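Per your request, structure below.
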């Protein structure tokens, strides 16, 4: 098996690591509809959503979500992961 990336970290852990390496004010995601999000704003949104998801869906392991192709999708997926849920 070829290892081109560190697979011992979660997606969320890797994004947090990248944010620290590049800077919280650097561009993380961008789309033509809702504009740009820095790593700091993306991780803040993910933390807020993650806390909500953790309380709203405490007894569930997976969480099904339907999202448009936009910055909110990234924040929501990271929020689901930060709540300890599996996005489905």
């Amino acid at each position: 098996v070829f290892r081109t990336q560190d697979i011992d970290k979660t997606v969320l852990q890797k994004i947090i690591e990248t944010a620290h390496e590049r800077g919280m004010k650097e561009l993380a995601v961008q789309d033509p509809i809702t504009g740009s999000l820095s790593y700091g704003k993306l991780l803040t949104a993910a933390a807020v959503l993650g806390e909500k998801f953790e309380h709203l869906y405490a007894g569930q392991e997976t969480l099904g979500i339907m999202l448009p192709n936009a910055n909110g999708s990234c924040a929501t997926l990271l929020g689901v992961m930060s709540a300890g849920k599996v996005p489905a």
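The radius of gyration is 14 Å.

Regards,
D.
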